[in-house]
Amino acid sequence: MLKLLFLIPAVLINVCCNSGGSVSNSKSEDSQSTATTSVMNDLNSNEADEKTEASQELRTSEDVGKEEKSIVDGKENKTKPKENFLKDESIKEAPLKKPVEVKENQQNSKFKKLIFGFNLGYLGDLKNGENINTALSTIKNDGFTNVRVYEPFTRNLMNNQPQQQVTYLKSLTNNGFNVLLSLSNYPFTSNGTENQKGKNADKDKQRMLQYTNRYTPDDLSEYGVFLNGFIDQLNQDNTINNLSFEIGNEPDAKQYFWGTPTEFISIARKTKSILLKYKRPIYCCGFTSEFANEGDKMNRNYSSFLYDNDFFRNVNASFHFYQNDKDGFSNVNIPNAKNGAITELNMFSHQNKGTFQKNLRANSPQLGALMIQLLDYAYTNDLKIVYLFKLTDNADKEGTLGFFDSNGLPKASYNYFKKMYSIIKDGYFIEKTNNYIKIIGQTKSVVLSLTDNMSPNGVVFANKVVDKSSNFLDATRKLSKGDWLISNN
To answer: In the chain, what are the helix, strand and coil shares in percent, each to the nearest 5?
Structure first.
């Protein structure tokens, strides 16, 4: 009987039961742990295998096919007790740009919703599952049931346990999670052509080739047959009803796709042709933050591809965003972003135990400021879902990008995220000037200062402030750039 708290087949109800943003940077998560755990032993010895709103306002290929025309818009301390929760189921010193005016009887039509999820990492990482289980328990109790995993065809899963991908995915969907599966690596060939290619590769690529294959498939037709068979397994027992698919993971980064843009685009078209018949949401292509900010300068082939309205007529665009000290989303330009996704988001693309200042900042009110800027971008561009990178730090790795620590306990970053989400969970609209962004939810609002010496008078009522980015702030003092105040409406 499986001992895994979360990663279990649904029939075992006696146990418990969100690749970096830089072309040159790693997310500190790019090596796979080979440690053998008792959880894995239990999983290997067993052959056994609540749905939320599956659609989550995401368009499927069937939905989009009904549209009259295509749309052109445009990266990780104490153990928490285990839970058996799945057994049951402003004086203005300078003239301001006039705020967006919303009459009271018009407000409901202006409210939009944004869905959040978490990256779990490699699908094969789920074998090291106890810390992930604890964190999954928390986010599900908090209402977050969307997760993303990538690279399902790693060597350990393909060679040692050919059905393990299906088992892991079922363990998530059977326990109420919607899974975005990023098809971002390729099966190893029987003749080992990827190993021949790897002989001339750099050391990092040779190292990763021991674990995963990111080379272009030798024969796209054979790959199509393989992929079709894999997804058919997920379709047999309706597991696919809680899945969506992403084609690629930072293909514009040499570290994460070992081919040319032309080769990737051919793979994307072939993959799309396989996925369409399953009528599940499809995303492409998880481009890097650098590409999102400087598309044409980064790669004209990929930039032109994003304007392929025929391809994106029934595919949603996806990209990654790591702030990395850039000034918010002001330069992001992703065509076909409507109904799209940010499939990885965090303040930094690289953090580890030695990056002390980054760790402090990622777990500070600065994370709240990033979330406000994200909400502004998402509202303006009709983005539908964002996956935070990542759910947990890994106990056997150095990375500290997780919103939960290596024991599965929430870090300050998760708490700042929840502060902002509590404002917009039932829908929100925005009010924006040159001096501030105001996110207005059903019962609460948050104001972010975009300038120094911003007076909140008239924007926030002092007696209604319930939270703030600094203990030294109140609604009668000037705000510095990046300061925020949360108030009741």
So the answer is: 35, 15, 50
